[in-house]
Write a structure and sequence with these properties.
Blueprint (H helix, E strand, L loop, with lengths): L6 E5 L4 H12 L4 E3 L11 H11 L3 E4 L7 H6 L1 H22 L3 E5 L28 H21 L3 E6 L1 E3 L12 H15 L3 E4 L5 E2 L1 E3 H14 L6 E3 L5 E2 H12 L5 E4 L14 H6 L8 H15 L4
Parallel strand pairs: 1-2, 1-3, 3-4, 4-5, 5-10, 6-9, 7-12
Antiparallel strand pairs: 8-11
Helix pairs in contact: 1-7, 2-4, 4-5, 6-8, 6-10, 8-10
Length: 312
């Protein structure tokens, strides 16, 4: 793939994963990278997406824009999480096929897997049950877009592929406690509690497990998929390990120097009991394996927050 000749649109390119992907695209020599800002292009609005494709004329689209958040945000706005995500993805696929885009890389979510899926989650089990209730609308919207991508491939020949990443973490993540995921939320809570001397209150009982992928590894996986994969089936993107929330809290407490009390609020939901992906398909088809050790990634995340956001 000659990146210097491609015109590339990255929806969500100013966001967390998107900004890391844009950095890698430019490092590969891609000169024409278009990053539509939400203030200028409302992806929920079909005419706005039509205008975007008409003006940018992309060869390749990475669709990363999404309405996302932690358990609390999903519980407060399930309708918006469903509607906005399905509308954005549907408009990108429809306008992409109308514009004759050569390839679209769609990013789904681990939240689409059944609540009690067998661990590790294999792509073939994606439809074996209902997702965990607290984020089911978001997860089902993303699964619907997988079906749409496959349908558009069958009817129109659109080369749309779908990747299913685990939770990403790293520098430039969102540390707003109202919308952040677990790692940035913990980092912020521990650092702030270290300054005030108060306890850190965390949701659930600490027993659920999660898998995490460093954001730059995630961006690398997207490029590999764009270069090497043209199939209809979804591909898991992860690091192939799981860690309990209790152990995660201990590691972040140590990295932030917090030695105070940790309180688990069991009246708050745990979310899905376990999460870990089978990443063998990504290794086989993309040649992708995570490279950043988890402790190194956590340390980089804490250091970045201290430099850029703490105290703001």
């Amino acid at each position: 793939m000659d990146w210097s000749r491609l015109r590339v649109v990255v929806t969500g390119g100013a966001g967390f994963l998107g900004s890391h992907l844009v950095d890698r695209l430019r490092a590969r020599g891609c000169r024409d990278v278009f990053v539509p800002r939400s203030a200028d292009v409302n992806l929920v609005d079909a005419p706005a997406v039509c205008r975007l494709f008409r003006e940018t004329r992309p060869d390749l689209v990475f669709h990363l824009a999404a309405r996302v958040g932690g358990i609390g945000a999903n519980q407060r706005s399930p309708g918006s999480f469903f509607y906005d995500n399905i509308q954005m993805g549907a408009h990108v696929l429809e306008q992409g096929r109308r514009a004759g885009v050569a390839k679209i890389v769609m990013v789904a979510t681990v939240c689409s897997y059944p609540k009690h899926a067998t661990v590790p989650f294999r792509e073939e089990t994606l439809w074996d049950g209902f997702p965990e209730e607290t984020n089911a609308p978001y997860g089902i919207a993303k699964k619907a877009l997988l079906v749409m991508a496959q349908a558009y491939r069958a009817q129109y020949g659109l080369n749309a592929i779908t990747l299913v990443p685990v939770n990403l973490y790293g520098p430039r993540d969102r540390f707003d406690l109202e919308t952040s995921h677990v790692i940035p939320a913990m980092v912020r809570k521990f650092l702030e509690a270290g300054e005030t001397g108060g306890p850190v209150v965390l949701w659930g009982d600490g027993s659920p497990t999660r898998e995490f992928l460093y954001v730059d590894d995630g961006a690398r996986a997207l490029l590999l998929a764009a270069e090497r994969y043209d199939g209809a089936d979804p591909v898991n993107i992860g690091a192939g390990f799981e860690i309990s929330m209790h152990e995660l809290a201990g590691r972040i407490a140590a990295l932030t120097g917090y030695a105070g009390q940790i309180v688990w609020d069991a009246t708050r939901p745990n979310g899905q009991p376990r999460r870990r992906l089978d990443t063998s398909r990504a290794a086989r088809l993309l040649g992708f394996r995570a490279e950043i050790p988890f402790d190194d990634g956590l340390r980089r995340t804490v250091e970045w927050y201290r430099r850029h956001l703490q105290g703001l």
